[in-house]
Fold each of these.
Amino acid sequence: RFLVLIALFFCCFFCALEGVEVVSVGLVGYFSNMWNVMDWLNFATFFIVWYVINQMLSQYETPPCSELCRTVGYADAHLVMGTAKTAKTFLSICVCIQLLKIIKFFSALVPKMDLAPSV
């Protein structure tokens, strides 16, 4: 849970940085740049990931115990695995958005990469 809290702190920090930019540029000017929209889409997706990971950790710590679990000791972790699958799906969406942002930054550093974000 500590690493999840660190990730939440960094995401909130970057949200605050983007908020400062919104105030300085203005709402319409800020959101007219599609890269900024992608940033906020990525922040929203991360908060979904954070919620799902916390849900998964709480399901792992207090698993539901049925009659079979109480009598034999077998516990089925299908609920935790389903939540982990959902977290991985949203996390992969975050990674895809970040890869697009990396292409954008490389296009400014490497001259031949300038064609990639324009396509």
Note: The mean pLDDT is 85.
Amino acid sequence: TPQPPTQDLLDFCELFGIQHHYFEVEKPPDCVSLTNSLIFDVLQICTDRQSQPCFLHCLDGVRVTGMIVMCLRRLLNWNSQEILGEYSRFLRNGEVSSKEEELVIRFSADDQLAPWLSEAR
């Protein structure tokens, strides 16, 4: 999200022993604001068994979260058509931008993430 979490959320996480990770992502209109490096950092946490279960969200629950999940699907060897089809079902207009599609198709973590990702392929 563009803004840090509220103190209420941080207190809740502390009370229940939940690890909280915040990644600032600006939300400029008509632009992909994620970088491969940021996606990799988020996926590193999400794929770490010590971090599971994992709850991933963004401001509107679609664009940023969707991009992260699409990149995870890519690492799990889903084909591009399936990845983009799943993502488009959650978009208001159902259209994936060419910039989003390009980022996902080019995304690669070079097997640097959790070992089970390699096993899952």
Note: The chain has a mean pLDDT of 84.
Amino acid sequence: ADLCVCEDSSLVAVGREPLERQCLCPPGYEYESSSRTCTECRLNYFRNGTSLDPCYYCKDLDDFMVTSRTASTSVDQCFCQETSRRRGEVTVYTVGEGWDRHCECAELYERVDEGC
């Protein structure tokens, strides 16, 4: 029989041996200490792995980075938001992989605070 039962159903027991098990939040969730539960990562945040760590903010990678949904589970779900469109052209691109993702303006466009 398991010796570790997590008090909230959003927490998962992790560990091979019953005495080593910990109650942790699944990917896409962070631990909320006031309610002692796991809550979805907010829009523009993500968290991979199972832990009690807070979600990461996509905009820490690049100011134009966003996610399309809550509970994102990977840095690869951060993408560059189209900040402006001119004549139907795409003006910003997501470049790089993983933690090296960033946004670049299309050729002939320069980066300004509000977009390309």
Note: The beta strands are 12-14, 22-24, 29-32, 37-40, 45-46, 56-57, 65-66, 79-80, 92-95, 102-105.
Amino acid sequence: DTDQQHPHEYHFDLDQARLFGGASSTHWWVKLRRSTTNPEVKLWPRNCCREAFGHRLWALIGNSSQIDEAKECAVLEVATSAMVQGICQGTGDHFFVEARAVGGWGYQDDGIAVLMLPEVRVLSRD
């Protein structure tokens, strides 16, 4: 069972984003135990505040901790606080979840995307 409310989550600092003129993208990443191909991804969003990241999250996979070197592998629609899942089409040993200030809908603040994630599971299928 996951606790989907604050403070049991990864939470980008909205006040800092506003102070420094916005955050067009915020992300979280993890180095996987081993390289994998087309893993299944399960995300538990926070029980509120989906408008902070525009109700949509992007999954990326790569071979370093640099998000600009990773490839987009899935787009996940987050309409409610229910767990969302998908297949990340790609290969790598680093997995990212990104919130973007464009490409979603119903944003709380123009030009700011605040990532909030209580739990992420990346499951190897190979």
Note: The longest strand covers residues 25-37.
